[in-house]
Amino acid sequence: MKTKISSIGIIIGGILVVVIGFLVSSSRVASSPRLRLKIDPQCDSLVGDLCEDIKAGLGLDVLTHEIFWEKEPESTWHIASLTKLMVVLIAMEKVKSGKLGLGDTIEVTAEASRMGGAQVYLKEGERFPLRELLEATLVYSANDASYLIGEYIGGSKEKFVQMMNKRAEKMGLRSTRFWNMTGLPPSEDKESYNVSTCRDMAILALEVIKYPTARRLASIKIDSFRNGEFELVSRNTLMRRCDLVDGLKTGYYRKAGWNIVATSLMREKKVIVIILGAKSRVARDSIAKRLIKHTLNKSSEMKSG
Q1: Given its phi and psi angles, is residue 65 left (phi above 0), alpha (psi -120 to 50 degrees) or beta?
Q2: What is the pTM of this model?
């Protein structure tokens, strides 16, 4: 009898472990929006042969979370400076919680001043408000600004990268992994490339655009930094050339190709288009523009009809 009771106890205990594990796992991704398919068959013909010039892509209706076009949405790829969207998200969440203020001044560290690639040439000892650093990050994709924000919030690069990966896990971004807060290719043997998928990036973008400050900064086409000494020209060429586009972030290095999270949020119909691994900036921007124009025009026609 004791053996039977013991066996039953083990079975019940095992079931409880599984159930609790499931509940904990579910709670970790509870904040993640659920995307669902509603493919527009016209989109493939619109993209045409350009589809061969990208690794992956996805078109999303922001309000319904319906995917209207996709190519390899779960394919993992190098995201380059799209990485900075996670930096911005964490900063915005800290501001919302009251732990940070957009006017808080941050002193430039030696590590931040040594960042390569796109930068606003921060000098050790200079001080800038968080808002200006966020603008440099979103508009000019400044690696030094992005690094400084992360280092300030986390206390170190390593601790902030841990925060990035934990936030990704909480959102259910199972194919996303961060090694740095800039998106630059690895500079150390122990590191690897920041990677994600179109589906994961869509979920991240949905979180970022909840913050009006992030949307406003990402929509800036040209501005200045350091009291007018440095001109900030948006690296989002699609936004500069297409009035329907108002954000959100681009990314590039040779191995990653041309990436973009393009948003059109100014109309009642709101759209996100994500392109990863495009062979050229022209291909990337052309696909995103075609999909955005088609989706917005289709929505207008349906209402007028």
Answers
A1: left
A2: 0.89
Q: How far apart are CA 138 and CA 126, in angstroms?
A: 20
- The tokens of 272 are what? 């996100």
What is the DSSP track for 103-136? T-EEEPPHHHHT--SS-----TT-EEEHHHHHHH
3-state class of 279 per DSSP? coil
Cα gap 246→266, rounded to integer Å:
7
Asked if residue 102 lies in contact with residue 213, where contact means CB atoms within 8 angstroms, the answer is yes
254 vs 196: CA distance, rounded Å? 17
3-class state of residue 78 by DSSP: strand
Beta pairing, strands 271-278 & 56-61: antiparallel
**Per-residue model confidence as pLDDT tens digits over 53-97:** 999 999 999 999 999 999 999 999 999 999 999 999 999 999 999
Instruction: Give the pLDDT band (50/70/90) at residue 183.
Output: very high
Find out whether 70 and 198 touch, Cβ atoms under 8 Å. yes
Average pLDDT over residues 24-46: 76
For 189, residues 6+ apart whose C-beta sits below 8 A from its C-beta are none
Are 70 and 194 a contacting pair, CB within 8 Å? no
Give the Cα separation of 268 and 141 in Å (integer): 28
Tokens of 278: 């495009």
Per-residue pLDDT tens over the stretch 254-292:
999 999 999 999 999 999 999 999 999 999 999 999 999
